[in-house]
Amino acid sequence: MSVSSSIASRSGAQERMTARERRTRFWQMVQLVPIMAILVLLFGGALVLAILQSLGFAPWFGVNTFPDFSYFGALWGSSTFWVSLGLTLYYATVSTVIALILGILLALALVKTFPSKTFYKYLYKLPLMIPYTVGIALAVLMLSNGGMLSRLAAFFGLIDDPAQFPQILKTHYGWGIIAVYVWKQTPFITLAVYAVLLGIGRETEEAAAILGANRRTIFFRVTLPQILPGVVSSTLICFAFNVGAFEAPFILGGGFPDTLPVVAWRYFNDADYTLQLQGMATVVSIGLVAGVILFGYLAAYRRYERRMGRN
Amino acid sequence: MKHTATVASLLALFAAGAAQAQDAEAAQFRDGFLAGEIDWSAVEARAAEEGTVNLYYWGGSDLLNVWMDRVVTPALAARDVTLNPVRITGTKDAVDLVLAEKNSGKGVGQGSVDMIWLNGENFATLKRQDALFGSFARLLPNAENLEWNPDDPRALLNLRDFGVETGGAEVPWSGEQYVCAYNADRVAAEDVPSTFAELRGYLEANTGKFTYIKPPHYIGNTFVQEAIYAHNPDGNGAEPFQRSVDEIPAEELARLIAPGLDYLRDLEPLLLDAAGGTPRYPEDNAALDGLFLNGEVDFNCKFGLYAVATGLATGSYPEAATQFVFPEGNMIKNKNYLAIPANAPNPGAALVLADWMTSVEAQASKLQQTGMPAGIDGWTLEEAEAQSIVEASPGLVGVTQAELDANAAPDTNATLVDVIEATWLEYIERDSTDPIEAIVARAYDNLSK
């Protein structure tokens, strides 16, 4: 009798809990509706259309051969696609890595106390407020063969003609592109890492120092694992942006072979509008490549977290 | 770009189910006007009623944008029409919009584009898709400022646009000729080339001091066409390139264009920055002007009859810039036009705008303020009117009108331009090892898809 009543009361409590849970779940869903509507309708709808078009569905241009994999076949079958993909990933990776190293160094410097720290804390954020295109324009004004540096060099007689200035922009090494990305993304990564650093405090580092660890060991064994969430989230965003960005490689890049977003733009911009389908196949390919890489990156990070015992 | 295309296609998809409807009243107006049953005062009354006209045009020239705001807007306001200038980065954006709206079932009176400034491939596309308002040009009161007699060879540029018959569906707005300029501070007068062989000779001595705008930009395409004309193995220049792809077999076209493309391929190692590995082709006019102004290249070839005079006035050209005749006998001359799309929302106002744009007053002020040559034909005008056009001209620098006329050549047929551009991209940019015959055949296949 007493046993069964206690069971009954416990199951009643469980039911009440699930009812409350259900209510919270419901409110969570309600709160998600606006963002889901945007994601599903605008982003998802555009994605579905892009995939349909890349497979030959464009009746508004008088083209309808759905499903037709020839656009992907032509794209992936040409060696220039793979060169373009390599260039895209090269610019994205190199600039993210450089920005990450600089960002961590800057964040570590900022947690220390030094004179006029407040001023520097504002100063480093300046590029965050300036658009990419302005950064690109600055690069053109300063670094190009017609830019300030080359003109000054010619003026002071270091070179006879501005055209002799060593070429920094418009090469496939992409120094101009990388410079703009690093300039813009270092503060972003600094911001993310600095916020995490403030959250964790300095006690663990001090403990490690007292226990006799040198600075190198402290960074790699104590600090880095703790700031990793900030590192992963900020590099993820930077890398995803760099893979899909168009302006910098278009204006500062070395011409053919172009990065994939520029290739896609060239197809869209051609007077022959049927090439838009080829352009859509390029866009979908960018999405696929970026998606796979970012998914792999996140999965690796999750595995690491789980091994560390975090969930 | 990606987004506009996606949004446009999204619109198209959602509306595709809608029946092919059109504004019955606007359609009646269109049919009446094209049949010559509506007189001009009724058109003007309708334009005032519509109240707005949406002109889509390439907004890359500050001089032109200012002219639109300062001259066209007040002129139309006097006719109770508000000009809505839509400045686009590429004419193709407007063509895409018209086609997307047309395919979503929007007919006359319902679209969003009243008029587009265009020529060549963009007009050919609209015509192929049956997306034009109709044969309006000769019905405008100012049509008398243009030569329409097909027996007069001078009427060719009004009747054909890149070899495609205009059929009066667009009205000439500006005339242009492909003219090169050199920087006299850097090039001695006796070294100025007048043939492609001499250009090569100059570049062998001064490597890297020349480049041309990258096809498929139409200015780059035009340079390639001139090289092809000059190297035509039959020696008859532009003549065989007036036919469309349907009239000229792929093997024949390949034979005709091969020497010109081979010349351009061999020229690559002598172009700007080629010493550093890959030659650099600027993307547009502004980029080439920058290279020329900065002394990175010694020549600047583009559609710019008065480019040197206006460039000197605005400071975008080096002070010693001078025009010269190049290449002899093959300086491509064409016109650009104003077209009314099939789904123009304000057809009456569009007609009034088209008529005003072809007036002597508009043409003279456009020439004076923007340096864009007149699109109307001087010999059809009264003496005082013709004189006002001559006086408005910013002037030629280093060449005479007679020299330019003597070396003029017609443009290439728009359908061949597609093939030539695809071949350039494949053969020169991508360094394809395939023979030109195979590349041209492939371009033909893609085009017929």
UniProtKB/TrEMBL annotation, chain A:
Keywords: Membrane, Transmembrane, Transmembrane helix, Transport
Gene3D superfamilies: MetI-like
Keyword field contains Membrane: yes
One Gene Ontology term, aspect cellular component: plasma membrane
One Pfam short name: BPD_transp_1
Topological relation to the membrane, as annotated: Multi-pass membrane protein
InterPro entries reported for this sequence: MetI-like, MetI-like_sf, Sugar_ABC_transporter
GO terms (BP aspect): transmembrane transport
Transmembrane segments: 32-61, 81-110, 122-143, 173-197, 218-243, 277-300
Subcellular location(s) of the protein: Cell membrane
The organism's place on the tree of life at top rank: Bacteria
Every ABC transmembrane type-1 domain range: 85-299
Keyword Transport: yes
Family assignment from sequence similarity: Belongs to the binding-protein-dependent transport system permease family.
The protein, known as: Spermidine/putrescine transport system permease protein
UniProtKB/TrEMBL annotation, chain B:
InterPro entries named among the record's database cross-references: SBP
Record keywords: Signal
Signal peptide as annotated in the record: 1-21
Keyword S-adenosyl-L-methionine: no
A family per Pfam: SBP_bac_8
UniProt keyword Signal, yes or no: yes
Entry superkingdom: Bacteria
Name assigned to this protein: Spermidine/putrescine transport system substrate-binding protein
Lineage: Bacteria, Pseudomonadati, Pseudomonadota, Alphaproteobacteria, Rhodobacterales
